[in-house]
């Protein structure tokens, strides 16, 4: 049976408003659960931020969904509104530690099936490095960071220091877009998520490539970008063309931008067979991993179906994308010893 690992899913623990006020007494993120216990809202202070369902905070519901969809292992990371990047570093560190400990408590419900990625106070590089190491030693399988902190993108000197630290410690990094760029023109139809979010991800990747940061960060760094790398795979030809013909593009980047695709991975959340084929063609079959964005509505609703039912992928490619790439990237256990029902949901491939 092919190992199936969903390496991009989110959680939000049952944080009370009182606890959230320790981070931010006006806008701290907390969870308001409806009387039915099945639905609720992520709140930021008094404001409703996003409607959510029980799977976000209940590991048993998550496991039921995993069993129904045939997922062996799932990695959870913070919902980005939890980052706390806008607060003072020490406050954000205390918050990150508590959220990271809560994540491990959720994983304790099934310690061979549920794993977590830690959050860190990225606004303070020394504190971020310390918490990344502490959380990794405590059982987290890596860290999740946002693609920027205010106007500082991933080529910022502090973030290069953080990524170099993670490379040295063997800590995998997932970069997730957040706090999307908008000048107010994207007011409706979730356009910040549909337009700006892919652009934010491409911006993060190109910040590392065109700045020359990848030349300074050890090649041992394991770094993955969410949502299929956003706009990057589709527009890579444009970037290469610009590098060839404009000196200002190649000013700090000594090699063709496309030559850096071996330095990072992406998840598979692209929702279209042709887009997935293009993604594999650009990134290579060893650098794409199943990621669903569970349990949010913009995620893959039948996890793994795009890969499992893809008519143009070989059995070997499917095995790598569905689980083997993530197992190696995050140092996860194999399927041996996993205990779960064996349903046959749509999209399940035989092996």
UniProtKB/TrEMBL annotation:
Domain of life: Bacteria
Pathway the protein contributes to: Secondary metabolite metabolism; quinolate metabolism
InterPro entries per the UniProt record, alphabetical: ACMSD (IPR032465), Amidohydro-rel (IPR006680), Metal_Hydrolase (IPR032466)
Any GO molecular function: metal ion binding
Any GO BP: secondary metabolic process
Domain (Amidohydrolase-related): residue spans on this chain: 5-332
E.C. designation(s): 4.1.1.45
UniProt keyword annotations, A-Z: Decarboxylase, Hydrolase, Lyase, Metal-binding, Zinc
Top-level class of the enzyme under EC nomenclature: lyase
PANTHER family documented for this protein: 2-AMINO-3-CARBOXYLMUCONATE-6-SEMIALDEHYDE DECARBOXYLASE (PTHR21240), 2-AMINO-3-CARBOXYMUCONATE-6-SEMIALDEHYDE DECARBOXYLASE (PTHR21240:SF27)
Family: Belongs to the metallo-dependent hydrolases superfamily. ACMSD family.
Subunit field text: Monomer.
Protein name: 2-amino-3-carboxymuconate-6-semialdehyde decarboxylase
Organism: Azospirillum lipoferum
């Amino acid at each position: 049976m092919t190992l199936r690992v969903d390496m991009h899913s989110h959680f939000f623990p049952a944080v009370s408003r009182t606890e959230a006020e320790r981070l931010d007494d006006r806008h701290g993120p907390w969870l308001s659960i409806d009387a039915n216990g099945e639905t609720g809202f992520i709140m930021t202070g008094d404001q409703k931020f996003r409607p959510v369902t029980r799977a976000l905070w209940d590991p048993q519901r998550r496991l039921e969904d995993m069993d129904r969809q045939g997922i062996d292992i799932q990695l959870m990371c913070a919902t980005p509104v939890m980052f706390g990047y806008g607060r003072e570093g020490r406050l954000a560190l205390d918050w990150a530690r508590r959220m990271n400990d809560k994540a491990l408590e959720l994983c304790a419900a099934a310690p061979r099936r549920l794993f977590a990625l830690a959050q860190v106070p990225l606004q303070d590089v020394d504190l971020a490095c310390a918490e990344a190491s502490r959380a990794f030693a405590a059982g987290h399988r890596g860290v999740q960071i946002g693609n920027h902190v205010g106007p500082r993108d991933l080529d910022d000197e502090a973030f290069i220091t953080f990524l170099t630290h993670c490379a040295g410690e063997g800590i995998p990094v997932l970069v997730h877009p957040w706090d999307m760029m908008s000048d107010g023109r994207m007011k409706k139809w979730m356009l910040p998520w549909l337009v700006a979010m892919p652009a934010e991800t491409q911006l993060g990747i190109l910040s590392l490539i065109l700045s020359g940061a990848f030349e300074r960060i050890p090649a041992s760094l394991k770094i993955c970008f969410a949502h299929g790398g956003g706009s990057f795979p589709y527009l890579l030809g444009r970037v290469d063309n610009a590098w060839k013909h404009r000196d200002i593009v190649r000013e700090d980047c000594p090699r063709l931008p496309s030559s850096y695709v071996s330095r990072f991975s992406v998840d598979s959340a692209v929702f279209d067979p042709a887009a997935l084929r293009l993604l594999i063609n650009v990134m290579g079959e060893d650098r794409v991993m199943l990621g669903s964005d569970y349990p949010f509505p913009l995620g893959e609703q039948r996890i793994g179906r795009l890969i499992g039912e893809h008519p143009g992928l070989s059995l070997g490619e499917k095995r790598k994308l569905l689980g083997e790439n993530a197992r190696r990237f995050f140092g996860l256990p194999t399927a041996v010893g996993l205990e779960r029902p064996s349903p046959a949901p749509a999209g399940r491939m035989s092996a």
